[in-house]
Design brief:
Blueprint: H1 2-94, H2 98-113, E1 120-124, E2 139-143, E3 148-152, E4 159-163, H3 164-184
Parallel strand pairs: 1-2
Antiparallel strand pairs: 1-3, 3-4
Length: 185
């Protein structure tokens, strides 16, 4: 019996030691799990911050890109409108009544004659009659060209281009900002 008692005491002592070891292991396990969960939560929070920042940055890039595209579209539409206005103006100038065109040609000749005396005048086919009776003209020659006139010195060294397209382009270039303000203000 004494042996049974010793065995029982040894088993009881082993059970206590095992219980203590298991309890210690459980505490250690709980501590490790808690540290792991805290580490996961911290990493998850950091990843979420990075994700939020990436989303914010991408949204800003998309907004900026959309704003740039919208500005490009608006500028293209404005350019198209300006081109249409320019083409319409040129068309109106070219198709103005002969009486108005004759007056305009006379004014252009008077201005040009101050620079080139007795100029040779080039005009569109069929428009020489609009220049008849204008003083200070050396000669008139009809050529295939757009509406307007070109004045040339007798020796051919100097030319003044008074074609409507040339004058409109010059005015357009100088006054584009004002025209744009009027059209798009």
């Amino acid at each position: 019996m004494a042996l049974d008692k010793v065995v029982e005491d040894i088993l009881e002592s082993a059970r206590k030691d095992a219980s203590q070891l298991i309890a210690t292991a459980e505490k250690e396990k709980a501590s490790i799990l808690q540290q792991g969960n805290e580490s996961i939560a911290a990493k998850k929070l950091e990843r979420q911050k990075q994700l939020d920042e990436t989303i914010r940055r991408l949204n800003q890039q998309e907004v900026s890109s959309a704003e740039l595209e919208a500005k490009r579209v608006v500028l293209n539409v404005r350019k198209d409108v300006l081109d249409q206005v320019s083409a319409g103006t040129l068309k109106e100038l070219a198709s103005m009544p002969d009486s108005e065109k004759a007056q305009l040609y006379a004014k252009l000749l008077n201005n040009g004659a101050k620079i080139i005396p007795q100029p040779k005048v080039f005009c569109p086919m069929g428009e020489a009659k609009l220049l008849s009776g204008v003083s200070g003209v050396g000669s008139i020659q009809e050529v295939e060209m757009e509406a307007g006139i070109i004045l040339e010195s007798k020796d051919g060294m100097f030319r003044l281009d008074y074609r409507f397209r040339t004058m409109l382009e010059d005015i357009w270039e100088k006054e584009l900002k004002n025209v744009s303000n009027i059209l798009f203000a």
